[in-house]
Amino acid sequence: MLGNFSYCNLTKLYFGDESLDYLNTELPKYGKNVVLIYGGGSIKKNGIYDAVVKILKDNDKNVAEIAGVMPNPTVDKLYEGVEIARGHQADLLLAVGGGSVCDYAKAVSVSVNCDEDPWEKYYLRFEEPDCETLPVGCVLTMVGTGSEMNAGAVITNPKTKQKIGHVFADEKIMPKFAILNPKYTLTLPHYQMVAGIYDIFNHICEQYFSGEDDNTSDYISEGLMRSVIHASRSANENPQDYEARSNLMWAATWALNTLVSRGKSTDWMVHMLGQSVGAYTDATHGMTLAAVFLPYYRHILPYGVQKFKRFAVNVWDVNPEGKTDEQIAGEGLAAMESWMKELGLIMNISELGATEDMIEGIADGTLIMPGGYKVLDREEIVNILKECL
């Protein structure tokens, strides 16, 4: 490993089918006023809401709610949540849901005591909080984003067609605790399940496809990817397979709690492309990533052949005998494409609602980031997006 780094993760995890009981352990650590944050109401149908509210009442908490957090939380929803949390004088924000709800809670956390417009400060100027932040806890019901154990928060501005993620530098923004019960994921529709699976896999890829040094992080990533592939096939065949779903939940957390990025550069251009597509289409996040991955990785493969070759052999078991490095690397991407089709992922942006006349705008909204094998220019982004159609 050639890089210099620090690593600190303050989130305490409770994992397993009895993990919600530990909410009783965490709640006494915080003040009386709790804001319960959740999405479209599925947690009321499956009983999770009632179970959480009972524990809050048993702990004598004064509860306010922010309901209706959408899959791509908007800046207007953020403003609404800030006002609710301020009015309630919140001591704790408790997110119950998937990654979007966890992201949203962290965005509210850094905004409640901020005197400036949080969109301008955090998502356009990418500044760090200089105000007191609120503690966040998560009860996870959908896997994919890893938001339960990192400091990232993605917010969408529908008016400007921007979907921007800010990974805050201070580990205090990470959730103080996260409760991971794989049973909560068993009721997800197949579409959401496989979108989350690809989100997990892509997080690992974007930290893997960079650098050429012998890096321990890459060995960890390969193991995680193989685990995701194996568990995804089991879950795709039988969505009620608890063991498969538990492995996916655990892999999702480790895919983006920053561990596998230590000591190396990272390449987040698939996310930048996918998020810009999402800003125009409001499509499910994991599907936007799946729809842009192949043209992007084919484009950068010539600049990182050795890592793509390693990916093919170590992750997809491609036989390298009698083949050029380029052939081996190409077979690895082909194997990944076949797996994605096997899961039923959407593989182009047209099916997500993107049209050719949106391409220029999507390109304008795509943040260009360094770290990968090739730093794209705008013309390359436009050409990649046209291939994604």
TrEMBL record:
<dbReference type="GO" id="GO:0008106">
    <property type="term" value="F:alcohol dehydrogenase (NADP+) activity"/>
</dbReference>
<dbReference type="GO" id="GO:1990002">
    <property type="term" value="F:methylglyoxal reductase (NADPH) (acetol producing) activity"/>
</dbReference>
<dbReference type="Pfam" id="PF25137">
    <property type="entry name" value="ADH_Fe_C"/>
</dbReference>
<dbReference type="GO" id="GO:1990362">
    <property type="term" value="F:butanol dehydrogenase (NAD+) activity"/>
</dbReference>
<dbReference type="InterPro" id="IPR056798">
    <property type="entry name" value="ADH_Fe_C"/>
</dbReference>
<dbReference type="InterPro" id="IPR001670">
    <property type="entry name" value="ADH_Fe/GldA"/>
</dbReference>
<dbReference type="Pfam" id="PF00465">
    <property type="entry name" value="Fe-ADH"/>
</dbReference>
<dbReference type="InterPro" id="IPR044731">
    <property type="entry name" value="BDH-like"/>
</dbReference>
<dbReference type="GO" id="GO:0005829">
    <property type="term" value="C:cytosol"/>
</dbReference>
<feature type="domain" description="Fe-containing alcohol dehydrogenase-like C-terminal">
    <location>
        <begin position="194"/>
        <end position="387"/>
    </location>
</feature>
<protein>
    <submittedName>
        <fullName>Iron-containing alcohol dehydrogenase</fullName>
    </submittedName>
</protein>
<feature type="domain" description="Alcohol dehydrogenase iron-type/glycerol dehydrogenase GldA">
    <location>
        <begin position="11"/>
        <end position="182"/>
    </location>
</feature>
<dbReference type="GO" id="GO:0046872">
    <property type="term" value="F:metal ion binding"/>
</dbReference>
<keyword id="KW-0560">Oxidoreductase</keyword>
